Amino acid sequence: MKLGIMQPYFFPYIGYFQLLDTVDLWIAFDDTQFIDKGWINRNRILHPEPAKEWQFITLPLAKRGQFDKIRDIRIKSDFDWHAQILGKLTAYKKKAPYYKQTIDFVHSCFDTHENNLARFVIRSLKMTSECIGIQTPIEIQSDMDLKLGKIEHPGQWALRISQAVGAGEYINPLGGIDIFNRKEFESAGVKLTFLQPMLAPYSQRRDGFVSGLSIIDVMMFNSPEALRELLNGYCLLGAST
C-alpha cells in the first residue's frame, strides 16, 4: 500500500492532488500545531490586474491560542467570508470557459454549517477529489487512534504512521526531502519515495502564465480531460535519487 500524509490545505495547487492521486490511502494530518501564513486556510487565485498576478482567498479564523493544533481551530462565524471569496472569483467570469461549473462547485463546498477549520477543509478536499476523478480514500489522523510511540524528530511522523497502517511505501512531496532519515525507513521496510510536480502551463486567457495557483484556477480553465492530463504531470524519485 502506498501512503500519503499532508496537512489539510484549502483548495491547494495541483501538485497536492497529484500526490493524492498517486497513493492508495491519504491521511489528513490535523494533529499538529497550526502555523500562520501557510496554506491551511488560504490559497491563491488570479488577480484581476495582470501586473499583480495573484491574490489570496482566505478562510478567516476565530480567536485561537498560539500553540493550538489544526484540529482545534475554528472558522470565524461572524464574517461573510463566503461572499468575499465568491466576489474575488468573479474575476474569472468573462474569461474562464468553465466558470459556471467551477462556481457551482465552490458553492457546494461552502454549503455546510461546519466551522471547524480542519473538518471544513478536509470536506472540501474530498469533494474536489471526487469532482476531478480521484478515488483515493481520505482519512483524518485525529480520528484514527493510531499507536505511534515516541516521535524523536519531524520525519518520524510519516514512518510511524506508515507502520501503524501497514503501508509498504510512503510518498512525500520532494520539497520535504531533508526532514527524513532514509536509513530509518529502510530498516523499517518502508519504501521512501518523493513526488516532483511538473506544473505544465495552460491558457489563463491573459499574457504569461501564473504557476502554482489553487486547483480552482485549474478547474476554471481546463476541461475534465485536460485536467486529467495535468494530474499526470509529475515524476517519482527514489530516496537514493
Can you describe this structure?
The chain is an alpha/beta fold and 241 residues long. The chain has one domain. Helices cover 32% and strands 16% of the residues. The protein has helices at 14-22, 81-89, 99-110, 117-131, 156-165, 182-188, 215-221, 224-231; strands spanning 2-6, 25-28, 42-46, 54-58, 138-140, 169-173, 191-197, 234-238. The strands form two sheets. A six-stranded mixed sheet has the order 5-2-1-6-7-8. It has a two-stranded antiparallel sheet with strand order 3-4. Helix 6 (182-188) links the parallel strand 6 and strand 7 (191-197). Helix 3 (99-110) packs antiparallel against helix 7. The longest helix has 15 residues, at 117-131. The protein is globular, with a radius of gyration of 18 Å.
Question: Brief overview, please?
Answer:
The chain has helices spanning 14-22, 81-89, 99-110, 117-131, 156-165, 182-188, 215-221, 224-231, and strands at 2-6, 25-28, 42-46, 54-58, 138-140, 169-173, 191-197, 234-238. With 241 residues, the chain is α/β, with parallel strands linked by helices. The chain has one domain.
Q: In terms of topology, how is this protein built?
A:
Blueprint: E1 2-6, H1 14-22, E2 25-28, E3 42-46, E4 54-58, H2 81-89, H3 99-110, H4 117-131, E5 138-140, H5 156-165, E6 169-173, H6 182-188, E7 191-197, H7 215-221, H8 224-231, E8 234-238
Q: How do the SSEs run, as a string of H and E?
A: EHEEEHHHEHEHEHHE
Count the beta strands.
8
N- and C-termini, Cα separation: 21 Å
User: What would the principal axes of the Cα set say about the shape?
Assistant: globular
Assembly state (oligomeric):
single chain
User: What is the mean pLDDT?
Assistant: 96
Give the strand content.
15-25%
The count of helical stretches stands at 8
The major sheet is characterized as: 6 strands, mixed
Low-confidence stretches: none
Structural class: alpha/beta
